[in-house]
Amino acid sequence: MTVQRSPNDDLVVGVDGGGTKTVAWVAPLDDSTNTVVLGRGLAGPSNPRAVGFEASQLAIRHAIAAALEEANQPCEPVTAACLCLAGAGREPEQNVMANWILSAKVANCVRVTGDAEPILAAASPEHWGIALIGGTGSLAWGRNREGQTARTGGWGYLLGDEGSAYAIAVAGLRAATQAADGRTPHTVLLPRLMQALGAGEPSELIARIYEDNLSRDQIAALAVRVFDVAAADDLTAHQIVHQAADELATMVATLSRKLRLAAEDYPLAIAGSLLLKQERYRQAVLDRLGELRTPPACVHLVADAVAGAVALARQAAHDTPR
Questions:
Q1: 291-320 b/e (C-beta count within 10 Å ≥ 16 → b)
Q2: DSSP secondary structure string, 268-319?
Q3: Can you give the pTM of this predicted structure?
Q4: How many Cβ atoms are within 10 Å of 210's Cβ, its own excluded?
Q5: Do 143 and 269 share a domain, yes or no?
Q6: Tens digits of residue pLDDT in 254-272
Q7: At a CB cut-off of 8 Å and minimum separation 6, what does 83 contact?
Q8: Is pLDDT of 164 > 90?
Q9: What is the pLDDT of residues 197-218, one digit of tens each?
Q10: Which domain CATH number covers 109?
């Protein structure tokens, strides 16, 4: 593939797109440190499965345009772009987005991945190890030294997302309603969640959840109440958090066995607002990995997955004949 020349020939773009926002960074093509950012852009959600391809592409275009503007660069094709998108972990979605980037002349070459690969790229210069996402949803993705990849989790909130903020919040709500019935022992989760949702009595939880049509993100935000109650030694909340930590650790342990990483002292890259903000929860996952005899050699906390997208864009540029 012959790369066309453009005013932005020495630039790359990394995009991290999820269910709530899209972040784009413009960076130099040649930066071995992967630390220089020339411009940043922000737009709405770009998970193609959640918002559709048209809305996803519009958000990505706006984020990239804003990043180029901040970098004082024209809206011309950059050398390479990497789109790391939630909802684009499989080839059909990746092909649609890659073809759009090329036809829209956003970049001269492009790579499209799911939202886990950039986390590993941001943490591991050699791009191997395991990335664990624990936010609204959950997913583990890994690559071994031979380049083989695999994933566990990432089935979405109806089929999976174990250990995620959404799953923890739903478990807390279910425990609260069961306690309200008297089917299970009293838990402080009931009054705390009623307060959070503005319910005067337990029966009003039905209206707050169903009639108010709360979004997945709004429900996931209730997970913090479960953690607060667990920290106050409420047995029910503690059991929910313990089970959730076990689910995430099992994802990682299963993946390490699939990729034969357990004996190689693999690096673990952690991302997602839940795991980054809830230190005790994060440590519970790591402790459980030790119990499962698959502890990582090192742990990296990745706050800006878009840095990994930039690294992958740079790699794509260097892998493409010019």
A1: ebebbbeebbebebbbbbbbbbbbbbbeeb
A2: EEEESHHHHH-HHHHHHHHHHHHHTT---SEEEE-S-THHHHHHHHHHHHHH
A3: 0.84
A4: 9
A5: yes
A6: 999 999 987 668 999 999 8
A7: 15, 17, 60, 97, 98, 101, 110, 111, 112, 113, 309
A8: yes
A9: 999 999 999 989 887 788 888 9
A10: 3.30.420.40
Contact 173, 192 (CB under 8 A): no
Residue 117 in tokens: 């690969």
16 three-state secondary structure: strand
pLDDT value at position 263? 65
Structural domain including 309 reads: 8-115+305-319
Question: Mean pLDDT, to the nearest integer, of 107-117?
Answer: 89
158 and 278 co-located in one domain? yes
Contacts of 319 (CB under 8 A, 6+ apart): none
CA distance linking residue 96 with residue 57, whole number of Å: 10
Residue 187 to residue 235: CA distance in whole angstroms: 8
